[in-house]
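Budget justification, computational time. The allocation requested in the original proposal was used primarily to generate structure tokens for proteins on the priority list. As evidence of use, we reproduce two of the resulting records. The first is shown immediately below.
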Amino acid sequence: ILKSKQFLEERGVELEIMSMPSPWQVSNVWREEKRLFESFASERKSYNLKEFDFGKPERRLEKFAKDNDIDFYSLYNRKEELGSPYFFDSVDHWNEKGHKFVADFVRAKLM
């Protein structure tokens, strides 16, 4: 990321980062899947997801951006608006409504 920032700055372009959370971070449906996985994992004692922090990746990226003077926009911070309607039910991808949500967010930042 820092090499990209340097490359862009040398050309007079400012790097900005936008986070796009996965459904397991914001959707109750996917959190139910996590609960089922925790049950499976606890039987094997190979995973400890009981105290998993869904926001940790977001905070790390936000801190990195701040520490390196990069503008950071977070969709995770709008997680109350996100959830199952914006993701396909069985895969970790945005559906049509999700892509529109992201496009509207980006459009608002550009205007």
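The second record produced under the same allocation is shown here.
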Amino acid sequence: PEMQLIYEEDPTLLVTTVQIVFLSGSADDPKGKAGVANIATELMLRGTKRRARAVFQSELERMGASFGVRTAHDHVTFVGQVIKENTLPFLKLVQDALLSPRFANSDFAE
């Protein structure tokens, strides 16, 4: 799979906005299991293997950041925004969420 990074810097802005797009969405849900992509991506925002949900959310808040996800038919977009001076710690947190999601059994019970 090919990955493309598009980067634009605007020194006049006080925030950094990040969008990460995966070219796979609800159309790729297994037959008879509609909603799997949506559920899985929402759960990725509920903590990581190293950070419980409350810790993950607290770190976002302390950075002045927000991080969310939108699932469409043919893609998934993670969108985040953070105060500019916290960009690198924010990107490390996003990396942790995307590469090491927690996926706790209790999340599936909800």
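A brief technical remark on that second record: Strands lie at 15-22, 66-71, 76-83.
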